Amino acid sequence: MSTSGSPVDQNRGTVDATGLHVAVLVARFHAEITDRLLAGALEAFREHGAADDDITVLRVPGAWELPQTAARAVESGNFDAIVTLGCVIRGETPHFDFVCQEATLGLGEVARGSDIPVVFGVLTTDDIAQASARAREGRDNKGYEAAMAALEMVGVYRALEVE
Questions:
Q1: pTM, whole model, 2 decimals?
Q2: What is the CATH number of domain 19-160?
């Protein structure tokens, strides 16, 4: 698995989660993977100053349900950023393609229509080994990476605000 080009290391310690209210939406399907992605995201937020009370974790059945939940979370007005975490592993039927496409397109639509960052942290892998490699502890955890992207994007959005 390549992590070359990832901004995680260069952004460590340069972003601040203090006082931010974030939602982490986590698919329960493939929980052995998504729980580890969640652990990575929580580590990133806490490492950068987020208080546990400012992090809302919402569990949904699977990746399919992430876009509709993200839309509701945006509409609530309660969050400064949203991170979505899920895992879809290719099987023997086209179900993989349908779920991946709708999760991707749906979250993209929510993100484009939102005034806050909505970050895509859904793994789409060929097998469990690939998913496990992306959910291990440390810098290669894609949940950590998604949380870091959310923190960076909060800064970008704030820089773009018009007074």
A1: 0.92
A2: 3.40.50.960
